[in-house]
Task: structure prediction
Amino acid sequence: MNQSEKVLEYIKQNGSITSLEAIREIGCTRLSARIKDLEDMGNIFHRERVTVPTRDGKTTVTQYSLIKGAVHG
Result:
């Protein structure tokens, strides 16, 4: 399974993903590139800026959720 597939699977299982989750959970350091790859395959994502806690306070990241998955057949 490649990283794009792992990102899509994570979103399907958890509802959304942030760059911090992508790094921590699947070792993906270029989440926006993987989202672009998935969009090029026909998937549609909702983007929302969210504030998440960090060791030194808070930061704002993009949270991606799947609106419509690509139909393969």
Summary: Strands lie at 17-18, 44-54, 57-68. The chain has three helices and three strands. The first strand starts at residue 17 and ends at 18. The mean pLDDT is 93.
